[in-house]
Amino acid sequence: MKKLFLISFVALFLFIGKSSFAQIDSSEITWTVPELIKFHDVIYLIWHEAYPAKDVKALKGFVPEIRTSMENINNAKLPGIVREKEGKWKEGLVDFNKATEEYYKAAEGNDDQVMLDAAEKLHSNFEMMVRILRPVLKEIDEYHKVLYIIYHKYFPDKKYTEITNVMDDLIQKADAITKADEEKLKKRLKEKYTEFLPAAKELYANTVSLKEILTTNDAAKINEAVEKMHSSYQKLEGIF
Predict the structure, then answer these.
(1) Dist. CA 143–CA 169, nearest whole Å
(2) Are the C-beta atoms of residues 16 and 26 closer than 8 Å to each other?
């Protein structure tokens, strides 16, 4: 069971996808932070073994591993693709560190319930840290990987040829967003679902438009089209 759980976890949280940019370090366009994901090894034992068994002695024994893991997490560098989430990441770290301090304090005491409560809070804060980074939708994540390279690598240096070379791939990924699972989106977005499809179609239209404008070799128009496409992406992601 543990093995199956870990396989599922890796499949979900280490989903990288096929990159179109061999020259780009894959870690830069992967949303995961290895130091945080590695902490799951400890959290799994705490939450799925020691906690349900109310094994307080075992819970206290995880303190050294937690301290080491937290030092690594606090010093971790976010990959470029989630750079806009750095503010939320730092805010989350404040609460995460508070939870670990409460865990350490509980481990020094003799109140079993306090120890169990501290373990529950630590698990909850770990999940919150993952949610801060996790892409809002698989299809949007795939689109964003290409957009990130365009907007932060090619566009600043006005490498229009390189942008042109990836537009077909980007258009396919934009189209995939418009065809994302409707039932899952309705369940997740609820009343905001009505905003999703129009925003997804707008992103697709602006992506197709950029490909067409690139053929004009008009720098001013291309720059405007790139910004418009990027803004459409931000609008779509903002719905979530």
Answers:
(1) 9
(2) yes
Nearest to 61 by CA among 42, 78, 74: 42
Model confidence over 96-118: pLDDT tens digits?
Answer: 999 999 999 999 999 999 999 99
- What confidence score (pLDDT) does residue 23 get? 58
CB-CB contact of 116 with 56 (8 Å): yes
Q: Rounded to 5 degrees, what are φ and ψ at 94?
A: -60, -50
**Could you tell me if 199 and 232 are in contact, meaning their C-beta atoms sit under 8 angstroms apart?**
yes
Side-chain half-sphere CA neighbours of 134 within 13 A? 17
Domain that holds residue 28: 22-133
Q: How far is CA 204 from CA 65, 150, 169, in A?
A: 46, 16, 12
In a domain, residue 9? The reply is: no
Cα→Cα distances 29→100, 147, 170, 182, 221, Å: 29, 10, 15, 26, 27
In this structure, what CATH number is given to the domain that contains residue 192? 1.20.120
Question: What single letter denotes the amino acid at residue 122?
Answer: L
Q: Which residue is it, tokens 């819970």?
A: 59
pLDDT tens figures, 176-210: 999 999 999 999 899 999 999 999 999 999 999 99
φ/ψ of 111, rounded to 5, equals: -95, 110
Same structural domain for residues 145 and 54? Answer: no
Distance between CA atoms of residues 96 and 162, nearest Å: 41
124 and 151 both lie in a single domain? no
What is the count of structural domains for the chain?
A: 2
